[in-house]
Amino acid sequence: MSSKLEAIGIAKRYGEALALEPTDLAVQAGEFLTLLGPSGSGKTTLLQMISGLVAPSAGRIEIDGRDVTHVEPGKRGIGMVFQSYALFPHMSVWDNVAYGLRMRRKSRDEVRAAVDSALAMVRMTDYAKRFPKELSGGQQQRIALARCFAYRPSVILLDEPLGALDKKLREHMQGEIRRLHKELGATFVYVTHDQDEALTLSDRICLMNQARIEQVGTPADLYDRPATRFAAGFIGHSNLLEGALDDTRGASGEPILLAAGGRIPLPMNAMNAMNTMKAANGKGAASAARHTLLVRPEAPRLVEPRSGFVDGTIADVVFFGSDTRVQLAMNDGSELTVRCERSLSPRIGDKVGLVWDPYRTTLLHS
Predict the structure, then answer these.
(1) Which end of the chain has the lower number of beta carbons within 10 A, N or C?
(2) Which residues form the ABC transporter domain (predicted)?
């Protein structure tokens, strides 16, 4: 399948400062791709080069196989939604949405039909005669979306469009954006530093760090199979257990990691993958190194002391409504967080053991 949008060797420097190292990224038609990462990771720089607002230092941008690297923003067929809304305060809602169509010299009938359709899509038809100052933040964001959707661009770029909204309204607008994406069938490229937002909205996530792409995959890929320690720590809550391989194997022949004061069985295929990675990088065998095991908080369950993989003492219990988070002080001095059902009643000071399915853990490559 050919890509709708493709960045090929795209890079950006500001003098000696590297904003984005040479990067390749392909986005399929109709896909919702999120650029996720901390501040300074390069995600907004990449989005701005796709839009044409920033010229790349190297590489090229293609849309539908056409090189648009040096095409001005207004002629790329791209829609853009900003965090600041950028509405004209002296224009009504209707005129704000119509503005881009009029600039493209659409006929009066075309403008009327497109604006009415866009306002209906974002459920703001009854607000057509109001001015931006008469709208809430969420309503203004809907108008910004409608203005972009009105001329039906095939690629829509969204630069942290929900960042200024409160938590409840942001969650509501996430649902609206997902609905609109499905209705339009357009290709969305969305920038955020909010991991929950990325997991909620995306078909795929492009995780960025220090001016480069760290990992690209579905939300489930990044959560369940992070490729690096950074990916594991940035997506979701992570228990990272440091240890070395035992020279002996478990009862079923599985490799054993000595970590958190216990003997932790690993998936049977974990060491094959690690040795392959080490060999590709020209390093020694996996058994000769220390390793990091990712255990998500929902994987372990509490058992009697000395009957699990590791033992610890309950240091804190926090009620979260749908579940309870238990903070454990492990026997080697490390800490580990476990998510428990509300029916359990763990108490601070209790000695407990932990057990989990080894195949719900990930041995990290770096």
Answers:
(1) N
(2) 5-235
Give the residue from 216, 239, 357 showing the smallest Cα distance to 292.
239
- Alpha-helical (H) ranges within the chain are 43-51, 93-103, 108-121, 137-149, 167-184, 195-201, 219-224, 229-234, 270-280
Rounded CA-CA distance 162/178 in Å is 13
Whole-angstrom Cα Rg for the chain: 25
Strands 5-14 and 17-27: antiparallel
List pLDDT tens digits, range 124-143: 999 999 999 999 888 888 89
Q: Which domains does the chain have, with CATH numbers?
A: 5-234 (3.40.50.300), 239-363 (2.40.50.140)
Cα–Cα distance, 47 to 29 (Å, whole number): 17
pTM: 0.86
Residues 212, 46: Cα–Cα separation, whole Å: 10
